[in-house]
């Protein structure tokens, strides 16, 4: 086949239409609030109840309590055994969706819109009337213990534990993994679970709905979920502020025999409320967000060190993190770390190019409707609005902000929010093989052994 | 329930054999552009396993008018997303979703790499390293990581197109030369071996005109070498049990039964059967092994019908004992549940639950233009006619209790079962020696395979 058979000239095309987030309706009913996005004609629907019941509300030493409490909601209720409840959900063609973070939990259900009513009845049954029988709790905790044992054997878990501890300190809840350790989970009892539910999951909360609202009786959904709910819903106390380290340090977690090293490199970052959110996300996308990002290009496409490399900011309600992550071939570990640090520094010092900025802006704008095609995806943006106190049209506003953004703002944000001299580097790999290279590269290397 | 596939489907075949499928949907400002090439790991000869997948990576390394990595860059710069490709034993797909006004750019990019490849030793070496790291990340550096590779080596006779891994071995990847890939492109990447699907806010006549403009001058190949394996019997023919002692945190058993292929008459019944037995919180295996008997750990899924298309596929499953329970006891309980279904079938209520789950899954799959386009590409490739997609729900609804019983009886037999058990090294040392005749496939590097997909990014 020859090139003459191909069209040489690259076609242009027309610019995308501006994105507008679906219409959002708010409704107060039975003491709770509903926030609903209208998706006309959609056959699938999603509803979720958002509660201030995240892991920061756990008593000290019981890391994992929020997760097991949330996970047990659909394992037996006042009117259904655990098995019956599963059959009831699945009989509707529904999928249980459950998310949690530092501050909140979201208990949701993804279902054909014609069955949203009975699905939300089940959701209410699970959240408001869980049974927490001793037998179900014992069984569930045993499964959690086993699954933690397996995840702590996977590469990356111990690296992540060491990373969080280095960033926030062992005494801070932020310094542990979201779901705690095997040993903190082992301390959780059935009484802890019942108490956590009573204390944190009996408030009305906020019901999020993403559906064809012409086919849904929103008030009835609210009645089902909010009836009789009246618990505390205050926010958790913020953990103490973390101090930056005085210089770059490498923490080495031994994984004997590993053929790859897991890397976690980063530092703390501002919360989502920062006025520089859009500028941060734009430079972060260029640094490590996409396939064509500087980090993936250098570590994968030029060097072949890895299957993929990236970096991103996580924007929490009170604090955030900046983290670069990759898994690299054992033999090139020190070189890969050096390359990653160099790219972070280059971005901090030199900012973005005009071309990078324009293509990344276009991608951010054009990909919005591609990433928001499902009710569940729309629901996640509703959740974000409620968690962070944003206006109903925050996604549409974000679109406008990206349209108006300037490269200089991204440069300023990179200079401000990247701190290449205060990075914590965690390497989880075969210490015997990677230690010498890291030493030779001049890093201050400290062996750590994160305890489970 | 809404219609199984409410959108119109327009199909055209260009003079050079390229099949063009268009399913307009003006409700989104997007165009999903998807190519299915009818070539996969099943076409790889011995010694060249992993080459179809490595080739897929090379398709992002440039073509006559597109530089290395530029495919990704141009799609993103025009506001596109959901860009990638994957290889499995049956096929290779390439896809992206763009704002509908940028449809032409996506077609131009796909045509350029269908018709040309700008391959250098440097890009080959680079992507070989990337794929070797992919192998490390997904197979070699994780507990149980090689289980699919081992399992398909046991489930198919040596040399069968499904008996080797999609990722390939390190030695095979090392041996790959430039000529392997220029030849692979020349052999399989042609308009008459592909289906182009476009879904979204597009006009079918315009899509066909653009396809004609960008792909129309590419030459048809006419024929494509395909493997010709001996037909497989319905069952493996003998029971098989293999135990591996490795550095794993807890014991875990994987079970495989030979099952019907995707697109065959019995596949919908196999999907219903495996959903009743092994999928979700209300499945029989969950209730029996976890809630009732407290033998196994909870799993997201205990069993699934794998959808390989060209030869008999597999009903695949896994279970892990609770602490203090022996692996063989949980396997025995698992097999009991299978046997029960083989003898007594399933109930009408179980059939209804499975149908509700599979029907809702279908609605989820069709909810995005990207996955809708991929599904159309699969139906067009498998049946030669994308209209077959409309029969999806009808076929599920037509499955009777008798169908499920028959498929269960044919599938769940001792002579149609492979049990692959992983034990932690320390525990295995203390255990009695394995019975004679148990083979250890971990020693034979080329007995490997996976039916799982491998992505470029």
From TrEMBL, chain A:
InterPro entries (alphabetical): Metalloenz_LuxS/M16, MPP/UQCRC_Complex, Pept_M16_N, Peptidase_M16_C
Peptidase M16 N-terminal domain span: 35-164
A matching Pfam family: Peptidase_M16
Gene3D superfamilies, A to Z: Metalloenzyme, LuxS/M16 peptidase-like
Molecular function GO labels: metal ion binding
Stretches assigned to the Peptidase M16 C-terminal domain: 188-361
PANTHER family: METALLOPROTEASE (PTHR11851), PROCESSING PROTEASE (PTHR11851:SF224)
Protein name: Insulinase family protein
From TrEMBL, chain B:
Single Gene Ontology MF annotation: metal ion binding
Start-end of Low complexity biased regions: 426-448
Signal sequence, renumbered to the chain: none
Stored Pfam families: Peptidase_M16, Peptidase_M16_C
Domain annotation Peptidase M16 C-terminal: ranges: 176-358
Domain Peptidase M16 N-terminal, first and last residues per copy: 19-137
Location of the region described as Disordered in the Swiss-Prot/TrEMBL record: 426-457
Family per record: Belongs to the peptidase M16 family.
Name of this protein: Insulinase family protein
Natural source organism: Yinghuangia soli
């Amino acid at each position: 086949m020859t090139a003459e058979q191909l069209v040489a000239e690259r076609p242009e095309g027309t610019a995308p239409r501006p994105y507008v987030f679906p219409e959002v309706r708010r409704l107060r009913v039975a003491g709770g609030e509903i926030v609903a996005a209208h998706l006309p004609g959609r056959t699938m629907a999603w509803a979720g109840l958002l509660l201030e019941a995240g892991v920061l509300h756990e008593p000290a030493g019981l890391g994992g309590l929020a997760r097991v409490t949330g996970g047990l909601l659909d394992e037996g209720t006042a009117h259904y055994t655990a098995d019956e409840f599963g059959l009831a959900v699945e009989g509707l063609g529904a999928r249980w969706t459950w998310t949690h973070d530092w501050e909140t939990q979201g208990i949701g259900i993804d279902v054909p819109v014609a069955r949203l009513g009975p699905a939300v009845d089940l959701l209410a049954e699970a959240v408001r009337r869980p049974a927490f029988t001793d037998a179900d709790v014992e069984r569930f905790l045993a499964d959690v213990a086993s699954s933690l044992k397996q995840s702590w054997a996977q590469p990356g878990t111990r690296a992540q534990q060491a990373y969080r501890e280095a960033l926030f300190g062992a005494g801070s809840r932020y310094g542990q993994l979201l779901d705690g350790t095997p040993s903190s989970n082992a301390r959780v009892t059935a009484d802890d679970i019942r108490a956590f539910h009573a204390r944190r999951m009996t408030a009305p909360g906020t019901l999020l709905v993403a559906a064809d609202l012409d086919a849904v009786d929103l008030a009835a959904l609210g009645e089902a979920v909010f009836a009789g709910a009246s618990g505390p819903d205050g926010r958790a106390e913020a953990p103490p502020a973390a101090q930056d380290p005085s210089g770059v340090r490498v923490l080495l977690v031994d994984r004997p025999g590993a053929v790859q090293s897991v890397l976690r490199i980063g530092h703390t970052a501002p919360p989502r409320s920062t006025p520089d959110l859009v500028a941060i996300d734009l430079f972060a996308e260029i640094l490590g967000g996409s396939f064509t990002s500087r980090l993936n290009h250098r570590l994968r496409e030029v060097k072949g060190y890895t299957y993929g490399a990236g970096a991103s900011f996580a924007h929490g309600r009170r604090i955030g993190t900046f983290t670069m992550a990759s898994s690299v071939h054992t033999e090139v570990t020190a070189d890969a770390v050096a390359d990653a640090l160099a790219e972070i520094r280059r971005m901090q010092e030199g900012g973005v190019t005009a071309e990078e900025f324009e293509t990344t802006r276009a991608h951010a704008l054009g990909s919005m409707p591609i990433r928001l095609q499902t009710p569940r995806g729309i629901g996640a943006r509703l959740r974000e609005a409620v968690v962070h106190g944003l206006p109903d049209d925050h996604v549409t506003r974000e679109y406008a902000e990206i349209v108006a953004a300037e490269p200089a703002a991204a440069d300023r944000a990179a200079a401000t929010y990247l701190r290449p001299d205060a990075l914590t580097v965690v390497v989880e790999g075969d210490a015997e093989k990677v230690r010498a290279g890291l030493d030779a590269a001049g890093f201050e290397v400290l062996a750590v052994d994160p305890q489970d | 329930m809404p219609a199984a596939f409410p959108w119109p489907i327009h199909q055209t075949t260009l003079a050079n054999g390229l099949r063009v499928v268009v399913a307009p949907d003006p409700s989104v400002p997007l165009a999903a552009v998807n190519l299915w090439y009818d070539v996969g790991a099943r076409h790889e000869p011995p010694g060249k396993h992993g080459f179809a997948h490595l080739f897929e990576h090379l398709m992002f390394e440039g073509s006559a008018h597109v530089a290395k990595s530029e495919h990704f860059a141009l799609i993103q710069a025009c506001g596109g997303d959901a860009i990638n490709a994957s290889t499995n034993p049956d096929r290779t797909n390439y896809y992206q979703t763009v704002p509908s006004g940028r449809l032409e750019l996506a077609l131009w990019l796909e045509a350029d790499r269908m018709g040309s490849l700008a391959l250098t030793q440097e890009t080959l070496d680079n992507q070989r390293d990337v794929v070797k790291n992919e192998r490390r990340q997904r197979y070699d550096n994780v507990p149980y990581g090689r289980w699919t590779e081992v399992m398909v080596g046991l489930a198919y006779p040596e040399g069968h197109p499904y008996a080797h891994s999609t990722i390939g071995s390190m030695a095979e990847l090392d041996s790959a030369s430039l000529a392997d890939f220029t030849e692979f492109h020349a052999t399989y990447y042609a308009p008459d071996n592909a289906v182009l699907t476009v879904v979204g806010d597009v006009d079918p006549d315009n899509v066909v005109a653009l396809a004609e403009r960008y792909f129309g001058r590419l030459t048809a190949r006419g024929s494509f070498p395909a493997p010709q394996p001996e037909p497989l019997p319905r069952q493996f023919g003998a029971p098989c049990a293999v135990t591996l002692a490795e550095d794993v945190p807890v014991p875990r058993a994987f079970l495989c039964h030979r099952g019907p292929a995707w697109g065959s008459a019995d596949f919908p019944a196999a999907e219903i059967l495996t959903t009743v037995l092994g999928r979700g919180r209300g499945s029989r295996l969950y209730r029996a092994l976890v809630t009732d008997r407290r033998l196994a750990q909870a799993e997201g899924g205990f069993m699934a019908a794998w959808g390989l298309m060209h030869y008999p596929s597999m009903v695949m499953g896994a279970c892990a004992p609770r602490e203090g329970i022996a692996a063989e006891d949980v396997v025995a309980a698992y097999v009991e549940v299978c046997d029960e279904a083989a003898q007594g079938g399933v109930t009408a209520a179980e059939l209804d639950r499975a149908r509700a789950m599979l029907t809702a899954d279908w609605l989820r799959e069709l909810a995005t233009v990207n996955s809708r386009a991929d599904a159309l590409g699969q139906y067009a490739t498998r049946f030669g006619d994308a209209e077959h997609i409309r029969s999806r729900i009808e076929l599920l609804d037509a499955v009777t209790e008798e169908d499920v019983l028959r498929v269960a009886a044919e599938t769940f037999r001792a002579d149609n079962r492979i049990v692959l058990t992983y034990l932690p090294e320390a525990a295995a040392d203390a255990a009695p020696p394995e019975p004679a005749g148990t083979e250890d496939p971990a020693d034979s590097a080329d007995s490997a395979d996976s039916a799982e997909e491998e992505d470029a990014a």
